[in-house]
Amino acid sequence: MKSDIFIIGAGLSGLTAAINLAKAGYKVRVYERNPDVGMRFHGDIQGLENWTSEEDVLKSLRRMNIKISFPYSARYSQELYDDDLNKAFLKSEARKPFYYLVRRGSLRDTLDYSLKKQAEESGVEIIYNKKMGIKDTRNTKDKWIIATGSLDSSATAPEKSGIIKGVAAGITFETNAKDRSIAILDDSIAPKAYAYLLIWDKKGTLATCMFENFDKGNECLQKSIERFKKIINFDMKNIKRFGGFVNFLLFSPRKTNTEKNRLYVGECAGFQDYLWGFGMGYAITSGYLAAKSIIENKDYDALWKSEFGGLLKTSMSNRYLFEKLGNSGYKRLIMMLKNNPSWFLMKNYNPSPIKKMVYPIARIKLKKSSALNIAGV
Ligand SMILES: Cc1cc2nc3c(=O)[nH]c(=O)nc-3n(C[C@H](O)[C@H](O)[C@H](O)COP(=O)(O)OP(=O)(O)OC[C@H]3O[C@@H](n4cnc5c(N)ncnc54)[C@H](O)[C@@H]3O)c2cc1C
């Protein structure tokens, strides 16, 4: 008889694992600390990255037994600005979008809601308002999947996990402006990262991502709003503020995300794009692989390492190199991106001998600088 599976966290990774296990005949129970799914988010728009692999990400999701029953917007172009507001208009050369926009949160038009419904239809039991910790998983023979995401994840994160935190500060709003995808690379409004404005179907998300100077969140957000207003004329109604952490486990890619009877998936396992924070793909894929490892009795660590271990390491090298650029370096990067952006992004997101060489240095240096970041939070 198939054993029962318990999952902590009804986010992207936990629900993907739950859907796959339930479809394979397992009895699955998911514990969620909030009264609903997606409560970490507020209807904000996020991008499902689509440049790393040849396969379109929506096809990958279907392959992982996820129905595309959520609204999305395919983005084939991207406006990119430097600190002087010089513009590069990037167009996908690869006949596939750079990314798909999705909404996050609890409402019916979100990815989180869609996964919840798919889990329920597959027979998954979700227990809300139930915060669980590692202690609940001990002294039991049951199999657990830990899928607690970011922020308070320290309660369930693997032991000895140092954390680099990236911070996002943003707003969601209603607008009459047309669909746009704009990003700005400028350390004075988004230190070591980027600010973005996404408008989709009369709703907008504007945010600054920061990898240092976290105490300047409000200031950077205000400056970002002013900067985007210089680029396009857009109205904003019903403005709501949001913020969030992006956790980067320092020892990731960890040697193992399997501890006794526990498998770690998603952001709490350190699965995250260290360069720009595109964590959704990692979350869904790791949830799928954890389920596969149980269903087919395969080694989970071997599965995730072979699927995206190299990508994780490359993203850490990319973060280290990106932090060296500064505003003048961003200008050069934008010039390089301009010619063939799809090719450039795919080449740089995938492993290469240079990125492999940089990785050990990146790991040590980022570990050191993250200690400062944590002190500043
Ligand atoms: C502002 C912001 C913007 C982002 N933009 C993008 C983007 O554009 N593209 C992209 O790919 N990624 C983006 N990300 C990252 C992406 O959202 C995450 O990587 C992804 O959601 C991680 O999925 P997960 O399943 O690991 O965790 P989550 O989706 O966060 O789910 C974790 C769940 O576990 C629950 N939980 C936590 N602790 C417990 C506990 N102890 N007991 C019970 N339940 C618990 C939480 O309530 C939550 O529901 C962004 C993140 C932020 C903060």
Concise account of the structure shown:
This protein is α/β, with parallel strands linked by helices and 377 residues long.
DSSP summary: helix tally: 8
Net shape:
globular
What's the CATH C level of the largest domain? Answer: Alpha Beta
Q: Helix and strand string, N-terminal first?
A: EHEEHEEEEHEEEEEEHEEEHHHH
The structural domain count equals 2
Task: Tell me the number of strands.
Answer: 16
The largest β sheet comes out as:
7 strands, mixed
- The percent range for strand residues is 15-25%
**Named CATH architecture of the largest domain:** 3-Layer(bba) Sandwich
Q: Largest beta sheet: what is the strand line-up?
A: 6-5-11-12-13-10-14
Bound molecules: flavin-adenine dinucleotide
CATH superfamily of the largest domain: FAD/NAD(P)-binding domain
Report how far apart the termini are: 48 Å
Arithmetic mean of pLDDT: 90
Share of helix, binned: 25-40%
Looking at the structure, the CATH topology of the largest domain is: FAD/NAD(P)-binding domain
Overall SS class: alpha/beta
State the low-pLDDT regions, or none: 152-161, 372-377
Q: Cα-atom Rg, whole angstroms?
A: 20 Å
